[in-house]
Amino acid sequence: MTTTAPVAARPALPRSMMALVFAFMLIGGALRSVEAGCQNSMKLALKNVWLCGVISYAVALTGVGLILVVSLLFSSRASRRWPTRADLAAMPRWAPLGGLTGGAAIFAMITVASSVGVSTFNAVIIAGQMFLATAMDHFGVMGFPRRRINPQRVAACAMIVAGSYLMAKY
């Protein structure tokens, strides 16, 4: 088993910045429901989940490319640093595979969300995310700082599962 190097603790963000970070995360989470609606509408129109996935990723790639171009136009020269060969060599070989996990999530959304409803879909997705995220935090893997499992975190996961159950049942 390979171990990851310890991750240096990052300084805490100021309270005002944390509020912005939480607002950004809430908006991002809310947009997941809009995404599910877009994916479902595309699936109903095109009747092909694979084509929906390809279109979805093509649009995402285009959007990220445009954001990159705009950020390069408006950023200072100092913030335009690109990775060196040494940076690329130091990157774990598995790191780019995160895009595949996103693809799996997209296909799950396209194929399942319309059957169970977007609220149940998102609730169960969040429960799955929390279980794995809690384990990843506990072991401090993939570059994340270690945050041990404790009774409060277990209780939070249990509440998320209970919420998922209630969302699916009612």
UniProtKB/TrEMBL annotation:
Transmembrane regions: 55-74, 94-114, 120-139
Record's keyword terms, sorted: Membrane, Transmembrane, Transmembrane helix
Domain of life of the source: Bacteria
Keyword Methyltransferase appears in the UniProt entry: no
Q: InterPro entries given for it?
A: YdcZ
Key word Iron-sulfur present in the record?
A: no
Give a Pfam family name: DMT_YdcZ
Q: What is this protein called?
A: DMT family transporter
Q: Which organism is it from?
A: Nocardia jiangxiensis
